[in-house]
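pasting input
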Amino acid sequence: MSEDTSASSLSASVALATAARLRRGRRYDAVFRWGTQVFAWLVLLVLGAIIVVLFHGGWPAFQHFGAHFFVSSAWNPVKNDYGAASSILGTLVTSAIAIVLAVPISFGIALFVTEIAPRWLRRPIGIAVELLAGIPSIIYGIWGLFIFAPWFSDDIQPALTNTLGRLPWIGQFFQGPPIGLGWAVAGFILTIMIIPFIAAVMRDVFEVVPVTLKESAYAIGSTRWEVARKVVLPYTRIGVIGGIMLGLGRALGETMAVTFVVGNAHDLHISLFMPGNTIASSIANEFTEADTLMHRSALIALGLILFAITFVVLALAKWMLARMERAQGEST
Amino acid sequence: MSGRYLRRRLANGAALTVSVLLTGFALFFLGWILFVLVEKGISYVNLPLFTQSTPGAGIDGGGLSNALVGSLLITGLGILVGAPVGVLAATWLAEFGARRRLTMIVRFINDVLLSAPSIVIGVFVYGIVVAPMGHFSAWAGAAALAIIALPVVVRTTDNMLQLVPDQLREAAIALGAPRWRVTLSIIYRASLSGIITGLLLAIARIIGEAAPLLFTSLGNQFFSLDPNRPIAALPQVLFNYAMGPYDNWHHLAWAGALISTLFVLGLMIVARLFSGRKR
């Protein structure tokens, strides 16, 4: 080193410094990479912790009532006898009502926004539908309780009872007291709440249909409706189902709006107009008041059941939308 | 032939008309809800609403000041925890996790958590925070909100970082910048408006949440800033007051419903404009 000319010693020391800087950079890089990865793991940890905590909290109820917990409609804090049947049934019925009503409406919106509306109108309508999703659940509840439910029981329910209620078999679903609180109103409010989610997914998947495909159909004389039904819908089928599942997942877990209008009764009944409950509304109503271990454990067990159902539904939704995306990637 | 043509034209016309009507139907409800909120709430939005605390049972007057402050406090704490965690997790997914199995799993689970029932998050936080501490607290409420905000932040940040073209990363690396430098000074800056949009959407999502607060932050009739004690939050007060039997509670609930809805929708529109302008 000492025999080197000053110029080359300078370049050598620069090279050394550069090497040191690069080494330091690599070390920081590793720290940064591992540091951020820890947070990615944290997302998984949250999921794992939720399952463990719910399972642990619900264990006394599962252990005490066994499989009977799922089919029993008992709910008696005095005798400490609990069953999940009425809550599970209410959750499924209200969500089913919401899906049956929301799917055609969402399809209409998606069709309007992607195929019919003039271009300048698409964005405002898209934003307006998005705002429908932004209204807090509690607001839907207050509006539902004070405005929608009275109107429904005065004007809509009698009409339904006098028409659908007269039909054989299914008529009994539509008979009941005009209280305004029950599965039907809860299901209807859920409908409005999940429309934006389903409509947004439908719109997004409709937009990825290759223009050439649609233009070919137009070229052989198809009408817009025929293109929508026979080209767009078949092409996007998996994505559309994924969107519906996403809406279903939302409906199943919706809490505050339902709690306001579902009536909060732990009964099994056949009329859609009778007060009922859902898993989420039972937890919201009773959790702070539950002072026995078994009552609280039964509610946590309900929470675990709800989490499991929504997890499966949402996972299916995700899987279908991912398949749609992959198919999309292959075809282009 | 022409009869069939006519039938197809009619079917088309009918379908398109129905789809316009259905869109109108959905938007009608947006209008109806907003109209009712303004009609019922506007006359109770006054100064005492912002300066007085929530009244107890049967006491006249009162306001929502403690609930408004409480909401801001636990939402702030929730975002303060949820946002950095979410941004860093998304950073790993978008910057280092390409084509790795862990990335796929985390994205999948994150999307599931995004729509997970918030009431279940409340039960979870009750189990890990409230029960061990032995009492309800603002900390617990903030923890629940942080968990709800986390997947929103991860999702939007991840999407935004993925939108940054790889050439930008390669150019920075070619100039000799280490990866952490590239991420902090180049990638974050390029996607800043998108990340902020995500944070605004996360705030909009959690500030209206009532379900996970019912048995975490519980509620508090009095003004409190102590995170270690129960605290009032606007959505939870709205729930109690709307369900309660007193007229002045209902009035406060309508006024609170109006301002919280306007705040959330305003936040969403601002977020929308923010992301739209930059892109």
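fyi Chain B has a mean pLDDT of 93.
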